[in-house]
């Protein structure tokens, strides 16, 4: 039986059972493709290369994220922070805090309210090893008897202290009756309150939140109003708190004691 070939393709005649043995019958032709080994190998190679590239891309992204910091162009923390490796983000809904929709932090002064505020930052003073202190953009002070540790505070805890100070300053009569230390009373004086006011201003503009206020129709008042009951992208505060508690200052710190220190910090920002 005749077979036609053309560049790797065989054309073979199809014959019905009634045609068997009848050489004079005109054959019907079918197309049969011969397998091409080099083509199969090419497909496998392309698949393997694509898979490896995908794995490499994912691994590179994870590595860059794990190494986020001053020298990382994709996840930059332009100045070093000892807590930068715990940074993660989540979505959190803010509430305006009017009427009944308020938090304990807005309530009238009481022991419970004071404790709620203090619990936000009372652990905020930390100690870090020299190897970490060497990476800071600004030099800090050594802790005597700590095995070479240094004292720091993450700025968020200073800002919370300042915000609490301004809250307390709104109720001077209440806090005059409290058994505050001289230092705590000095916090409520106008010079410190003004310091706190501007510290919060600087922090807000530094960490400019670009979440959006939105407007809605209020059928009760029959007018359009803005609302702050919206979602924001936030740093995971719980993870930052966990870091601070793990590095909480346990060494004795004497702010009247001068200590010679040879730690050299490059002047990055004066």
* Biggest sheet descriptor: 3 strands, antiparallel
Proportion of helical residues: 25-40%
pLDDT < 50 runs, ≥5 residues: 2-6, 21-25
Beta-strand content: 15-25%
Oligomeric organization of the protein chains: single chain
| Strand order across the largest sheet | 1-2-3
- What structural class do you assign from the helix and strand content? alpha+beta
Question: What is the 3D shape?
Answer: flat
Q: Gyration radius, to the nearest Å?
A: 35 Å
H/E element sequence: EEEHEHEHEHHHHEEEH
Average pLDDT rating = 84
How many runs of DSSP E, i.e. beta strands?
A: 9
Number of H/I helices: 8
**How far is it from the N-terminal to the C-terminal residue, by CA?**
94 Å
Family: Belongs to the ustYa family.
InterPro entries: UstYa-like
Keywords: Membrane, Transmembrane, Transmembrane helix
Pathway: Mycotoxin biosynthesis
